[in-house]
User: Fold this.
Amino acid sequence: MMNTQSIDKTPSILKAAWMIMVVTIISKLIGFVRDIIIANYYGASMVSDAYYYAYQIPSLSLILLGGVGGPFHSATVAIFSKLIPNLKEKPSDVVNKLYSTFMTATIIFFVALSVLMYIFPRQIMRLIISGGSEQLVHLASIHLQIMTPLLVIGGIVGIYYGILIIYKQFMLPNLSPIIMSLAIIGIVIAVPNDQKGYALAWATTIGAVLQLIIQYPNIRKLGYKLKPNFEFVNNPHFREIGELLFPAVLSSTVGQVHIYVDMFFTSSISEGAWTAIGYANRVFQFPVGILVTAFLVPLFPIFARLVAEKDFAGIKNYFNKGVGVLLFGAIPIIIGILVVGTDAIRLIFERGEFDANATFMVTEALWFLSVSIIPYVFRDSITRVFYSFNDSATPFTVAFSSIILKVLLNWILISKMHFGIGGITLSTSLVTLFNACVLGYFITRKMKMDYKSLFKNFSKMCIAGIISGAICWICAVQYDNFVNLSKVPFEFLKISLIAIVCLCVYVPLNLLMKMEYANELFSRLKSKFIR
Assistant:
């Protein structure tokens, strides 16, 4: 009976996963439009630097802690789902009491944190951007004060996300980030040019408030009512939430510590440097984030099921296929960034206040960041295997230990070797490689992996990639020699031609070398077209 239920539920789970993926893609597209508009009005300037420096602190609550998959969402799902036997009934008094207790504790904690942020913004920003000018610190401080409500909203929205997902309302939590992007787009465009100084901070705060407002009616409709409750000690279920929440929050904040380290070193480079790194990250995440989401969303539950069944051969098979396909797709992205990255940045961002110097800064950061795609794909995939073994401690420990490496690499590359913006993203790539290698080693203590087969196929991809990259580079140089125009239609044509050349060389080379995953993908596509 248990197996039948599992089989029956699988299609709906996968359908939900694909729906979430589609919404994620739409969200990234709208987020990309938001970034283009911000770049148009602010460029890579002191004002945009001040906003992005200040935003890193409230974003810790709104995105990392309270976002979908964050600690507050995860803890809510883990504990509340056990206490709700029937999703069609209103929550019991016990559940509502726990909801009120959790909400009360969350609001108290984040309000206290918000007050501290509001009173001491200059001290906080001076600590983070110690190499920046007094004007930059002043601007960032005011931005931080405007955005302090995001701290409280982040925790509350995280709990709302968890409750909605328990009741299988998947779309609303995943649509929420789009509200933020649309609010920023609308306000930045509407505000007159002479009043845009703090428009970004106000738009972000308004967007967060709207996220909270659109969730609330559904929470009330489900039967959840907030009544302040201060029984934090004698509630065993609340204690369970705390036991889950504390290590999860630590895990989420490790990545943010890396960002603070980068902010500290970037503030001494040049005006607009942190903005340029931010844009490079978002350009990087656009194709890579979609690629990783598309494959890891459906793979994660498969890993978990195979671990439960102790089918280690199945895990190795699915892991190698998943990572292999991701690497197969990642190499053309790297080629594209290295060959036509400048053209793409110019095409997307270079207008208004975003000038040629800003284009160069973003491209420089993106070039060094592009090489991290390979270890990034492997690290995120192997992390899912650890989670399937109910082991979140090992990824946390590895990530935490890499903070020291990040500081050391930034110090060497920025302070000693004066690499500039490229040094920040190069250190990120090296740290990602370190995490991937260490996690890849530690997973072998749980099960034997088939790395030989994976790296054999990866070697073939690299050979095909090097040849394809060289041909694409020659084509790009010849195009510039003949056309020598930087207008939008010609840049778009150049990027399109290079993409076609890359695929026309890269895919056949992999097929000729009998690269396993290329052959499998080609066979599946061929069978679909023949049908």
Summary: Residues 1-14 have pLDDT under 50 and may be disordered.
